[in-house]
């Protein structure tokens, strides 16, 4: 169950990065609404991460959490912010995904 919680925490990490990106694009009320979304996602991500590390070693959980957040943020940037899709970006995101899967596979718990 804590592995599922960890993955959800990673998605919330992508969520708070997405909100930061949207805050760059707006002003006024929109800025504060995206800021509230940032704080909500940040809080949820940290609480879920704290819950997950109760049974998952921190040396495994933290890299997986940041990896999910990084991959999700890159994908959100490509889809919503028109960031470039280059061979090297896809290559390194792929190696990050492989590393996250590898950490999950070799985790002792």
Automatic annotation (TrEMBL):
The entry's keywords: Cell membrane, Membrane, Transmembrane, Transmembrane helix, Transport
InterPro entries in UniProt: EmrE-like (IPR037185), Small_drug/metabolite_transptr (IPR000390), Small_multidrug_res (IPR045324)
Membrane-topology annotation of the record: Multi-pass membrane protein
Membrane found in the keyword field: yes
Single GO biological process annotation from the record: xenobiotic detoxification by transmembrane export across the plasma membrane
Subcellular location: Cell membrane
Source domain of life: Bacteria
Pfam assignment, any one: Multi_Drug_Res
Positions of transmembrane segments: 33-50, 62-81, 87-106
Positions in coiled-coil regions: none
Chief localisation class: membrane
GO molecular function terms noted in the UniProt entry: transmembrane transporter activity
GO cellular component, one term: plasma membrane
Similarity comment text for this entry: Belongs to the drug/metabolite transporter (DMT) superfamily. Small multidrug resistance (SMR) (TC 2.A.7.1) family. Gdx/SugE subfamily.
PANTHER family reported for this sequence: GUANIDINIUM EXPORTER (PTHR30561:SF0), SMR FAMILY PROTON-DEPENDENT DRUG EFFLUX TRANSPORTER SUGE (PTHR30561)
UniProt-recorded name of the protein: Guanidinium exporter
Species the sequence originates in: Candidatus Cryptobacteroides excrementipullorum
Taxonomic path: Bacteria, Pseudomonadati, Bacteroidota, Bacteroidia, Bacteroidales
């Amino acid at each position: 169950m804590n592995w599922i919680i960890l993955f959800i925490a990673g998605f919330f990490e992508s969520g708070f990065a997405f909100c930061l990106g949207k805050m760059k694009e707006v002003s006024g009320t929109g800025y504060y609404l995206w800021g509230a979304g940032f704080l909500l996602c940040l809080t949820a991500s940290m609480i879920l991460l704290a819950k997950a590390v109760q049974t998952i070693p921190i040396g495994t959980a933290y890299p997986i959490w940041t990896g999910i957040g990084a991959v999700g943020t890159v994908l959100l940037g490509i889809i919503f912010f028109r960031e470039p899709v280059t061979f090297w970006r896809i290559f390194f995101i792929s190696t990050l995904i492989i590393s996250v899967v590898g950490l999950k596979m070799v985790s002792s718990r």
